[in-house]
């Protein structure tokens, strides 16, 4: 098991097959999927397939979403991380910053803390030149997180018939330099 980032309270590590129950709890929650196309998963097998796909991204691209684990309880909080994205914005590929937490962990600053750690990791350790992210225009919490960690809102775009905000940050503009 590879641990990529460690904070005072969280381990950010590769997703593993044994994370399937936590991933199922996360992705079967309709509230979690409210701004993600309203397509929650229905079976643990779907969670296992998601983890397998992410693990394939590790092999193919060297990056992918990582599990957030609470250090004191060993609980699966959700996921965060960078991934090479080719589908969301047709016409160009980019490094996407994302996060998704189980509902019981919302509103505690975890997404902000871990997303910021991933931004640092991407620029400092991986040498990525630009990191981008997208958030549904009505997902106020996610838009706030992206702004708070320094990504700049540059435009809006349509995805699956819904309006989304597009954020990006160049390494040369990053305040962490």
From TrEMBL:
Keywords annotated in UniProt: Transferase
InterPro entries linked: Acyl_CoA_acyltransferase, GNAT_dom, N-acetyltransferase
GO MF terms held by the record: acyltransferase activity, transferring groups other than amino-acyl groups
Native organism: Arenibacter aquaticus
The N-acetyltransferase domain, residue ranges: 10-172
Listed name of the protein: N-acetyltransferase
Source taxon at top rank: Bacteria
């Amino acid at each position: 098991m590879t641990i990529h980032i460690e904070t005072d309270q969280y381990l950010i590590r590769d997703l593993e097959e044994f994370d399937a129950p936590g991933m199922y709890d996360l992705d079967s929650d309709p509230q979690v999927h409210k701004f993600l196309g309203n397509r929650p998963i229905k079976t643990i097998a779907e969670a296992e397939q998601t983890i397998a796909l992410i693990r394939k991204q590790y092999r193919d691209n060297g990056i992918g979403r990582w599990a957030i684990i609470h250090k004191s309880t060993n609980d699966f909080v959700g996921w965060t991380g960078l991934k090479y994205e080719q589908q969301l914005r047709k016409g160009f590929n980019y490094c996407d910053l994302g996060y998704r937490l189980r509902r019981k962990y919302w509103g505690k600053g975890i997404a902000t803390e871990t997303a910021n750690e991933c931004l640092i990791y991407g620029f400092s350790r991986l040498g990525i030149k630009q990191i981008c992210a997208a958030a549904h225009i009505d997902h106020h919490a996610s838009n706030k997180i992206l702004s708070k960690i320094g990504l700049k809102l540059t435009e809006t775009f349509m995805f699956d018939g819904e309006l989304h905000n597009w954020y990006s940050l160049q390494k040369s503009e990053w305040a962490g330099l």
